[in-house]
Structure formats: structure tokens, C-alpha cells
Design brief:
Layout lengths: L1 H19 L4 H8 L8 H20 L21 H17 L3 H7 L5 H27 L4
Helix pairs in contact: 1-5, 2-4, 5-6
Length: 144
């Protein structure tokens, strides 16, 4: 049952990405091109997502637990540190250059375009590299 619910949610998300045009990297790169062919539609998609999420959280977090889990999985760290800032900067640069973010790239795999597969492959390689680096840093740090 959980698989079907996750599949349905993924289908809704992917359909929204496709209908909004966010599977098209030109939409994203044109949003950042304020001196050229600026396209503000990404701001409307983000604003709509923020509105729905903000409203949804108000209702969902009033529940004692999620429908399909024992507890809510919420971040415990609330500090803005160097890894967070660097990761955000790298993500933003990559998003601006490629025109894809992970949320938009996965539904775009359905287009069959080679650049989407290349992006997703390098995304996975980046995730694995980051995990390996973090593991090395963690194991190299002196015990306190």
C-alpha cells in the first residue's frame, strides 16, 4: 500500500512539473537571464508550491504522526554552517547552468532526451562523491 501511495504522489508531482514546463531547462535558464529573455514563470511555480506547502504544513503538523509512518522526520539541526552554505551555492550554480534540479530532472527522464540522462547520471555521481568525502572527513576527524 505504501508503494502505491508513494507512486501516486510521485505521479502528481511529475505531472505538475511537466504541466508547469519545469522539465524544460530553458524555463529555468531563462528565469536567470534577467538581461535577456527573462521568463518569470518559475517564480509563479515556486510561489504556488510555497503557498500549497505552507498551508499543508499547518494541517499536517497538527496530527500526532504521519499517516504512513510512526513519527515525522524533521531536521534537528537549525544552524546555518559552512557545509550548508557551500552546498546551496553549488546547487544553485549547477541549477542555473544545467537548467535542471533533481525534482525537475527525474520527471524529465520520460522525455528520453540524452541531456536529462547525462544530468541524472552526474547527479548520482555527485551524491556518491559527496557521501564518500563526508565519510572520509568523518573518519579522519580526531575523536573528542
Amino acid at each position: 500500500m505504501r508503494f502505491l501511495v508513494c507512486f501516486g504522489i510521485g505521479m502528481i508531482f511529475g505531472t505538475g512539473i511537466a504541466l508547469s514546463g519545469m522539465a524544460n531547462p530553458a524555463k529555468v535558464t531563462n528565469f536567470f537571464d534577467v538581461a535577456g529573455h527573462w521568463d518569470p514563470s518559475l517564480a509563479f511555480v515556486m510561489g504556488g508550491a510555497l503557498a500549497v506547502t505552507s498551508l499543508g504544513y499547518r494541517f499536517v503538523l497538527k496530527r500526532p504522526s504521519p499517516v504512513m509512518a510512526e513519527t515525522f522526520q524533521r531536521p534537528t539541526r537549525q544552524t546555518i554552517d559552512r557545509p550548508l552554505v557551500l552546498g546551496s551555492v553549488i546547487f544553485g550554480i549547477g541549477w542555473g547552468i544545467a537548467g535542471f534540479c533533481p525534482g525537475g530532472a527525474l520527471p524529465a527522464l520520460g522525455t528520453g532526451r540524452p541531456e536529462v540522462f547525462i544530468f541524472v547520471a552526474t547527479l548520482i555521481a555527485g551524491i556518491l562523491t559527496a557521501r564518500a568525502v563526508q565519510s572520509r572527513i568523518k573518519h579522519a576527524a580526531p575523536a573528542t
